[in-house]
Amino acid sequence: MLRARFATAAAAIPLLLAIILYGPAWLFAGVVGVLAVLGVAEYATMAFPTRAGDRALNMGLGAALVLGMVLPNRTHTLLSAVLVSIVMIGLIWTLLLRRDFEMGLHDLGLSLVGIFYTGLLLPHFIWLHDLAHGPLWVIFVLLVCMAGDTGGYAVGHALGRHKLAPRVSPGKTIEGSIGIVIASLLAGAVAQLVFLPDRSWTEVITLSVAISILGQLGDLSESIMKRTFAVKESGWLFPGHGGILDRTDSLLFPVTFLYYYLAYSG
Questions:
Q1: Is the pLDDT of residue 1 over 50?
Q2: Exposed/middle/buried for 116, CB within 10 Å: 0-12, 13-18, 19+?
């Protein structure tokens, strides 16, 4: 398992960096868009493992949302229309076209969470990439989150004694959580020295801490989903790493936060 994780990382990371830094914007948007749709599909498979119709509906609505987020000429009107359509179609499908409308309302909640979780949040990588110095900020959030994951695993494995959220994720410890914050800070410091010298130390440190905390909250959120659906991993796309949701759970909250911070602060 560990060998598969290293092999996958060794192959994926250089390719990802090349696409972020040197690839055309449409290629990066296409990769993120495909991953977002696959993420919606993974969630739908977990939530509705025996109901092909519900899975297909979730994937179709998720794809529509991703398309609205990804299109280069996206507007607030377009996104509003997509979001309204998702809610209306979801209500019609799960309530008006079903006899068991009580369970339909429950299923609608499950569907909307899955559609918005990756379909709405993951494409913020594209929006972040489109900002001034966007590729560098994409690398920043990836670096801080990946370093945090590695540091948290190492510290938690070596020193972890006190459970962080035993009901949600028994393997996570308070010591590991602290390790994530420390490793994220170190990664943020490297980023400031190497490719973000125009940003103040206070800003970079604050962003690194915020990203490390949001990343952990996102990780725990996905753990709750998997525990609710009684699955160990969300998918199998990345050997040794699981699925799209397993690999992006600690990225979705941070990248969304970072985009809006930069968009409104300049």
A1: no
A2: middle
